[in-house]
Design brief:
The chain is of the alpha/beta class. Helices cover 57% and strands 14% of the residues. A seven-stranded mixed sheet has the order 3-2-1-4-5-7-6, sandwiched between helices. A hairpin with a 4-residue loop joins β6 and β7. It starts with a helix and ends with a strand.
Length: 353
């Protein structure tokens, strides 16, 4: 018994030290576990923040892409006859009211200031020696010519939905003019088609018996018109390169379709006076109407016009156009409005008073 007691007495300090080491080891393991758990929580939190940032970045990018898409499609229509209204599936939901458009405009204010379309136009005009009309001519001699030949072509596969809609809208305006003049009799009548483009109005008028003298500021478009007229057998139509200020002659009817959008009101007044001096009976013009609704849409369309659509687009108040016609000695006898999803054009036929 004495030996056993002595052994236990000697062993007790060793056991105590071993027990202490076990306790320390256990405490260290517990601390390590706690640290690992804290690290895991930090990792999860970091991942969550990263996911939120990524989602926010995607949302912002999507919103910017959507805004640019809407702006781009709106701008496409401005080059023909007025501002666009994004109303097909690719451009998003239709804007159903003036209030809705104004809200959209207010929400996109930062984009309005950033787009600075006036700066782009000033640069284009400066590149043309300060002459805005020379800038327009340069546009229609280069990328504008190829763009509008495609839009006013026959191949539906070469154009997108917006461009196809513009083509159809312009065709409706042309049909209305042809029907007006045909109902009055076209055989042997003389018509000056000023700003003829690819000949979409000149050719059917010629085929119905009119003698058509067509002109356009764009050489490439005039060549395209000649080619189409020849293929259609429109032998009584002639085409020349000329701006509106230089064209002259006397005709039974003078037409100027979807051209005023390139002219400010003071130039439109002078243009109407000049065209009226050439007409012995009728003057037919079309223009993009200037209303608060269309003006907001036009401004949205300027967000992302791109270099091929950066020429000025002017809207005109109908009362101003009518007043100019009256001063030139003409009174409006017929009027129409063509409005598709992406094309807006007010059409007036005036006769010498």
């Amino acid at each position: 018994r004495h030996g056993t007691t002595t052994h236990i007495a000697h062993s007790t300090p060793h056991i105590a030290r071993a027990s202490k080491r076990v306790m320390l080891t256990s405490k260290s393991a517990t601390n390590t576990h706690k640290l690992n758990r804290a690290h895991a929580r930090r990792c999860v939190a970091t991942a969550a923040v990263s996911q939120k940032r990524t989602a926010k970045a995607h949302a912002v990018a999507s919103a910017q892409a959507a805004a640019a898409s809407v702006a781009s499609t709106l701008a496409a229509s401005l080059a023909v006859a007025g501002p666009a209204l994004a109303a097909d599936g690719d451009a998003g939901s239709a804007v159903g009211s003036v209030v809705g458009v104004l809200a959209l405009a207010a929400g996109a204010g930062v984009f309005f200031s950033a787009a600075d379309p006036e700066k782009r136009r000033e640069e284009m005009t400066a590149a043309a020696g300060g002459d805005e009309m020379a800038s327009v001519k340069t546009y229609f001699e280069t990328e504008g010519a190829s763009r509008w030949k495609k839009i006013y072509g026959d191949d539906e596969e070469e154009v997108n939905k917006v461009q196809l809609d513009i083509r159809m809208g312009h065709a409706q305006t042309v049909d209305k003019i042809v029907n007006w003049l045909d109902s009055d009799g076209l055989d042997g009548r003389t018509v000056a088609d000023c700003g003829c483009g690819t000949g979409l109005l000149s050719i059917p008028l010629s085929l119905k018996g009119a003698n058509v003298s067509a002109s356009d500021i764009s050489g490439p478009l005039v060549e395209e018109a000649r080619s189409r007229a020849s293929a259609a057998g429109a032998k009584s139509a002639t085409f020349e390169v000329s701006d509106l200020e230089s064209v002259d002659g006397k005709f039974n009817t003078v037409t100027c379709v979807d051209v005023m959008i390139h002219y400010p009101q003071n130039k439109v007044d002078a243009m109407i006076e000049h065209l009226a001096s050439m007409s012995e009976e009728k003057l037919i013009v079309s223009f993009a109407p200037n209303t608060p609704y269309y003006s907001v849409l036009k401004r949205i369309g300027e967000l992302a016009p791109g270099p091929s659509k950066a020429t000025r687009a002017y809207l005109h108040k109908e009362e101003d156009v009518r007043a100019a016609l009256k001063r030139a000695g003409f009174r409006v006898t017929r009027d129409e409005m063509t409005a598709t999803n992406f094309y807006f054009s007010r059409l007036l036929e005036a006769e010498r008073a």
